[in-house]
Design a protein that fits this description.
Length: about 450
């Protein structure tokens, strides 16, 4: 048990060196938080360009203040692509993506590849924690066996001289009301010793840790949080389509219902789900449920509704233009906002790309404006290239239709409303009028 006590003391005294693998929207805030508390931190990423930028104090994520990165570098933070340096850290936090494959099944390749890259350099008395969102059972069924399969692994006894935990990320990019420090952190461990160490680690950087009884409980907690949002957003998206047919403003309905001080939580509709979590994570549980013979009908139905919203928006666009004796073919359309949520530069799984693709397939002339995304390049989700156009009176009056997809706070909404021929609002930002409709 000496190993545990030595590591605990090292964490509490902040002499422990922290390694964070994956320097994106989850890993980078963790690096900054550990650095703020005086820990020496080492960041690992396979993207050499990201590593280069971070080491000179630059940020590649707009909502993360460059001054925080510069301070971290000044305090000893270093980024690297050299995974052999894992041998020099005491705690390892894995924050890599967990996407879906082409069959909407879990793709754990990033986790497995990371473990393969670091396992030649693992040593005794290290704490390894997975933060990536995944299905219940992943840490115990995937991570633990890989560690135990290391050549000469007899030197590792998990819970005695090597420790494994799971603590799901809870980042909300762009939300200034909650930070890595103030968001409660769910923690778990493979053994009681692993749990204790995981809790001690996060106690140094967050205000509140929430220990749970098993790795699977922690994994399920994160999935539940995102399924809760997916199902409720699916519900209001379905109600939006119903309300539209009944000429009822769904936003007015939701805001009126939200005045009830108990038993109701407002969720708002949109043009579809985006981001790395809510459109993806529910499928992880659906896949796991299928393995044990359970049909998760609520989850699948919500997914179907949310996935159908881009097509519904485009159908509303087509109908609205037709009522104005205008065809979508050749129509000049300006998209406002292409990120998956407002005030961030994250385009992962954004419904904007699906809507733009559908419009282009119908031979509309499509431009976009987004101050957070000056350039679009081809990716697996975006098969077109274009640059953000200026948002000015001269440009606005030239378009047949403006579609608000992401309601960034920096937009000049008075300018947009006063100089646009016709607006389709998918976020409830404008008041309905003869030239503004909701979709």
């Amino acid at each position: 048990m000496m190993s545990k006590s030595v590591l605990i003391n090292s964490l509490k005294s902040k002499d422990a060196k922290i390694g964070v693998i994956g320097l994106g929207y989850v890993g980078l805030p963790l690096v900054i938080r550990f650095s703020e508390e005086g820990f020496k931190t080492l960041g690992f990423d396979i993207d050499a360009e990201k590593v280069k930028k971070l080491n000179i104090g630059e940020s590649y994520i707009k909502y993360i203040d460059v001054d925080n990165i510069k301070t971290a570098v000044k305090n000893g933070f270093k980024a690297t692509t050299d995974f052999s340096e894992i041998a020099n850290v005491d705690a390892i936090l894995i924050c890599v993506p967990t996407p879906l494959d082409v069959h909407n099944e879990p793709d754990l390749s990033y986790i497995k590849n990371t473990l393969d890259a670091i396992r030649p350099y693992l040593r005794e008395n290290q704490l390894l924690i997975l933060e990536s969102t995944t299905y219940p059972g992943t840490t115990e069924e995937v991570v633990v066996p890989i560690i135990e399969s290391i050549p000469n692994a007899s030197r590792f006894t998990i819970g005695e001289n090597f420790f494994i935990g799971y603590s799901p990320e809870r980042e909300d990019p762009g939300n200034k009301n909650f930070t890595t420090k103030t968001i409660p952190k769910v923690v778990s461990g493979y053994t009681e010793n692993c749990l204790e160490l995981t809790k001690v680690l996060y106690d140094q950087i967050v205000d509140c840790t929430v220990p749970v009884s098993s790795l699977a409980v922690a994994e399920m907690t994160k999935i539940l949080e995102n399924i809760h949002r997916s199902v409720n957003i699916g519900l209001v998206n379905e109600l939006k389509m119903l309300a539209d047919k009944m000429n009822i403003d769904i936003y007015e309905v939701i805001n009126a219902a939200a005045t009830k001080p108990f038993g109701f939580t407002p969720y708002y509709p949109g043009p579809g789900l985006g981001g790395h979590c809510i459109p993806i994570d529910p499928f992880y549980l659906t896949w796991k449920a299928k393995q044990i013979g359970i049909d998760t009908r609520f989850i699948k139905l919500a997914g179907e509704i949310n996935s159908s919203m881009p097509e519904w928006v485009v159908s509303k666009v087509s109908d609205a233009l037709a009522q104005r004796l205008k065809d979508l073919l050749g129509a000049k359309v300006l998209i406002l906002g292409v990120t998956y949520k407002k005030n961030v530069d994250d385009v992962r799984e954004t419904p904007a790309f699906k809507i733009m693709k559908l419009l282009l397939e119908k031979n509309a002339q499509v431009d976009y404006h987004d101050p957070y995304v000056p350039q679009l390049t081809q990716t697996k989700d975006c098969d077109f290239e274009m640059s953000s156009v200026a948002l000015c009176k001269e440009n606005l009056v030239d378009y047949d239709l403006i579609i608000l997809l992401t309601d960034h706070d920096v937009f000049d909404y008075d300018l947009i409303e006063n100089n646009s021929k016709f607006i389709i609002d998918t976020r409830g930002r404008f008041k309905i009028s003869k030239n503004i409709i909701r979709a």
